[in-house]
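Below is how a single chain appears once it has passed through the pipeline. First comes the sequence as given, then the structure the pipeline wrote out for it. We keep one example in the README because the format questions we get most often are answered faster by looking than by reading.
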Amino acid sequence: MVPSPTETPVQTEQVSERESILAPLRVPLFRSLWIAAVISYTGSWMQNVATGWLMSSLTSSPVWVALVQVALSLPVFLIALPAGALADIVDRRKFLLVTQSSMVAASGVLGLLTIYSMVTPHLLLVFTFLLGVGAVMNDPAWQALTPDLVPQSKLASAVALNSAGFNIARSLGPAIGGLVLVASGSGVAFLLNALSFFGVILFLYRWKPVDCHAHPNGSTLSGAVRDGISYLRQDSRMLAVLVRTAAFSLFASAFWALLPLVARGYGAKGYGFMLAYFGLGALVGAGLLAKVRRRFPHDTVVVLATLVFAGSLFGLVRTQSLVLSSLFAAAAGLAWISNLASLNYVAQVIAPAWVRARMLSMYVLVLQGGLAIGSAVWGVVASHAGIKITLTAAAVALVCGLGLGVRYRLNRSAA
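Resulting structure:
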């Protein structure tokens, strides 16, 4: 039998919100992994910058450039749910060691192929897909690991810190990646990304948890997937998280799909500069989010963040200035993290331990699936209608999608 969603303690949000965002860093295990994760995230953002730029150098087709995001996100359709189920029924530590090692291999081989001028658009997509497979297998177990490292009272702050760390890397990675592109090329950036995983691997290798996860009622993969789906059907608030995530990711994906083409006129440095400002805006958003959540309900935060993101898309294609483009990118970064961190936080709080990885895998499925589908659609639209019209249409669609919030409310079951 699948336990009722109401068994999740509703007091968790109220207690967690009052915790200092830095409190989890006083926990040695969390602090060690957080530092290693920031280094790994930085390498991944260098990889993303280098991949997008390399593809735009190999071909000027908007479709091929957009397919980079598709290749990175497509694995979520194939393995997200099984990955979440596995993360709930196997040793998460060993599971993460495997996924991290697979990404080292994929990034390292791609780096060597690029350095020796053997990479083609097709090969670039293949290895990007393999990295996407590793990331999708990794994500549910990675997010579900946080409650094993910090006390329950510090969980919300730990989730916010993870977002902040991700966005510190989002600020540093593109800037470093742009410098590496200019100095050494994409191949070196890929190899540096491979090296960046070793801090996390070392932590996982040395960490000996007493109990890495809670076993569900059934131990088979198919049974775990079925239990997760059954739980979702009972939890209207989790369903609201997924619907609102889909409404945002499908249309916001136009930013990631077409930004390399928007920035092409500014060169590799300009592209890295815009991404660095996006990361800086996201970092500011992560720092402000705890205060904003205390004053406004999650639904209001998501609405405001979506409006800001839509305005950023609208302005991004109406300026020829790198400074203004970077400011619009910073606003988009602030809105991006405010929206998705709020949705992820709600998912973390309402999901009980025994099914947490599966609920997070569904969140990853919807988010990354929306990015993959949206990237493909917006790439095709841009090849026919142009970048300006495409990003304007995406901005309008984001605003229209807010109408779903009337029925799918994040705060319906909030304490």
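The chain has a mean pLDDT of 83.

See the next section for the split statistics.
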